[in-house]
């Protein structure tokens, strides 16, 4: 059961530790064998130095900056080495190279033999001569290449130190990675209780962080809402500039109205003056006509007194008298008409004067609102002969300079208000930028919360799936146990029946085997008798065969001896001859 539960559980994909990324110095973090140094495999980035790099190291200002950075690094390690500008001594160059190579885990190197191999292994793009390494007393032509090699080793040493100092920063500062490592270690060791306790502890920590994040988000949202309310209030409500512009518009309307009133008054005064001049001219013409008529009458009277009258003259005089009477009647009618016109003109002038009085009162009120100063007031004079005498003030000489100064003040105040508006716009832009930053921060917090919630949902889903699988496995195991128990009962019953039948069969087989054993014993005895008889027969046959073989051997030996004697006799006979 324990092994099944351990096998059924799998680590979550989100908590699987990923391998750290490869670094460009991992292949020479520790010193390899000499066989790796002797490898002549070419570099993928090229082996030869570029002309631009060498030209850069030929620059004296760049040389000085490079030497100062190397000297500061050497001083930070409490070394009594200082590379002098423009060309250091051979001892300083040798000690610097030995120190840099030792920082790369190559202690006590021999420069003329080991340094070219190390540079080739590290794929250095610069190739110094062995003679220069053997005796580093260089000139101006050899120094840039050697400085490039020293600077290249110095940069690799800095990178190696950086990796050594920041190797565990990610694991130390990442709670999720630490949790995954600890949980996986408990999982490997099979300690499910510790894993569950760690899960609960981590979930509680996540809940606390989530509550803190939500609280900070609520505070930020309240702050953002307050700032947005202030911003909307500033946008919707009238600003200082708008209020001043509104007041300026009211004042400009008053000034325009005042100018219109003054213009209308000037026009009405000009019209009245024109009408008055026309009436004066008509009056002068009438006076001249009256004088001329009186003079004519006097002359006529004198002529009448001097002349003698006859009937014809009397008739003519009567006719002239009738004509004069008719002219007098027409003149009286014309005088009556002119008197009516004069009365109408007087009534019109009185109405215009009243209108001028009302306009003057309005102008005085407007001037008091404008606070022009110097006590400018319109005081009408009905007996005045000129517009200035009638109005009491000369507009062009007295009121217009004050209005011009007031317009200049309005322009200056508008410029100041414009500057204030620009500053307010800058403040509003800064506020909008801060609000936008708060919104971005809220968005990042929301995304972080969403990620944490997604991880929590994944954890809950995994735990739910795991518990569901465990319950299913438990049910299956219970069903299997019950099935096995049922099968065991069936097997026990079958075993009892088989045992009974096997006992009966055993008894029968025992009887049969006893009978067969008896038969086999009888047959065995018969076989033994036959075998003994056959053995006796075989022994007799063997004796006969031995006897025959011995007889045949004697016969063969005799025959062989005879053949040998015949051969030796032939040879002896040949020798004798």
Automatic annotation (TrEMBL):
Keywords: Cell cycle, Cell division, Centromere, Chromosome, Coiled coil, Kinetochore, Mitosis, Nucleus
Compositionally biased region (Low complexity): 35-44
GO biological process, any: cell division
Region described as Disordered: spans on this chain: 1-50
Coiled coil stretches, renumbered: 203-289, 314-341
Location in or out of the cell: Chromosome, Centromere, Kinetochore; Nucleus
Residue spans of biased composition, Basic residues class: 1-10
Gene Ontology cellular component terms for the protein in this record: Ndc80 complex; nucleus
Keyword Cell division: yes
Pfam families: Ndc80_HEC
Domain Kinetochore protein Ndc80 CH span(s) in chain numbering: 57-160
Superkingdom, taxonomy of origin: Eukaryota
UniProt entry tagged with the keyword Coiled coil: yes
Function, in words: Acts as a component of the essential kinetochore-associated NDC80 complex, which is required for chromosome segregation and spindle checkpoint activity.
Quaternary structure, from the entry: Component of the NDC80 complex.
UniProt family annotation: Belongs to the NDC80/HEC1 family.
Protein's recorded name: Kinetochore protein NDC80
Organism expressing this protein natively: Prunus dulcis (Almond)
């Amino acid at each position: 059961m324990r092994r099944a539960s351990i096998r059924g559980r799998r680590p979550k994909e989100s908590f699987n530790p990923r391998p750290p990324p490869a670094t460009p110095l991992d292949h020479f973090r520790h010193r390899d064998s000499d066989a790796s140094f002797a490898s002549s495999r070419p570099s993928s980035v090229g082996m030869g130095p570029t002309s631009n790099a060498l030209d850069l190291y030929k620059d004296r200002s760049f040389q000085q900056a490079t030497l100062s950075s190397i000297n500061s690094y050497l001083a930070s390690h409490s070394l009594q080495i200082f590379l002098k500008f423009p060309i250091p001594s051979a001892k300083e160059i040798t000690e610097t190279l030995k120190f840099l190579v030792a920082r790369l885990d190559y202690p006590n190197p021999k420069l003329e033999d080991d340094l070219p191999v190390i540079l080739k292994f590290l794929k250095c793009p610069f190739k110094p001569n062995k003679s220069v390494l053997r005796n580093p007393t260089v000139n101006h032509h050899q120094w840039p290449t050697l400085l490039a090699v020293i600077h290249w080793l110095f940069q690799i040493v800095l990178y190696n130190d950086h990796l050594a100092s920041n190797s565990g920063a990610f694991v130390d500062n990442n709670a999720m990675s630490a949790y995954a490592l600890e949980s996986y270690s408990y999982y490997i060791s099979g300690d499910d209780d510790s894993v569950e306790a760690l899960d609960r502890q981590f979930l509680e920590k996540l809940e606390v962080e989530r509550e803190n994040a939500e609280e900070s988000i609520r505070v930020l949202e309240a702050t953002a809402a307050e700032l947005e309310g202030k911003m909307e209030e500033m946008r919707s409500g009238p600003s200082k500039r708008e209020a001043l512009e509104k007041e300026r518009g009211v004042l400009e309307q008053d000034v325009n109205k005042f100018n219109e009133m003054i213009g209308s008054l000037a026009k009405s005064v000009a019209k009245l003056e024109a009408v008055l001049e026309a009436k004066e001219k008509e009056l002068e013409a009438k006076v001249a006509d009256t004088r001329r008529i009186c003079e004519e009458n006097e002359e006529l009277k004198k002529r009448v007194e001097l002349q003698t009258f006859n009937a014809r003259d009397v008739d003519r005089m009567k006719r002239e008298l009738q004509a004069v009477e008719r002219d007098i009647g027409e003149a009286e009618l014309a005088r009556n008409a002119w008197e009516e016109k004069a009365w109408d003109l007087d009534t019109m002038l009185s109405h215009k004067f009243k209108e001028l009085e009302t306009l003057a009162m309005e102008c005085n009120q407007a001037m008091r609102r404008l606070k022009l100063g110097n006590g400018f007031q319109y005081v009408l004079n009905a007996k005045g002969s000129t517009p200035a005498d009638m109005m009491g003030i000369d507009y062009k000489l007295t009121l217009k300079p004050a209005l011009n100064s007031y317009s200049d003040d309005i322009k200056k105040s508008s410029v100041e208000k414009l500057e204030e508006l620009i500053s307010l716009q800058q403040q509003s832009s800064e506020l909008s930028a801060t609000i936008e930053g708060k919104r971005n921060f809220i968005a990042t917090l929301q995304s972080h919360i969403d990620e944490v919630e997604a991880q929590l949902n994944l954890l809950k889903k995994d735990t739910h799936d795991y518990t569901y699988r465990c319950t299913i496995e438990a049910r299956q195991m219970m069903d299997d146990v019950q099935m096995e128990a049922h099968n065991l009962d069936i097997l026990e019953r079958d075993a009892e029946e088989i045992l009974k039948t096997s006992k009966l069969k055993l008894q029968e087989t025992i009887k049969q085997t006893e009978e067969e054993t008896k038969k086999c014993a009888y047959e065995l005895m018969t076989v033994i008798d036959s075998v003994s008889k056959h053995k006796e027969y075989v022994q007799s046959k063997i004796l006969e065969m031995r006897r025959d073989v011995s007889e045949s051997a004697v016969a063969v030996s005799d025959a062989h001896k005879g053949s040998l004697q015949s051969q030796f006799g032939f040879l002896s006979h040949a020798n004798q001859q």
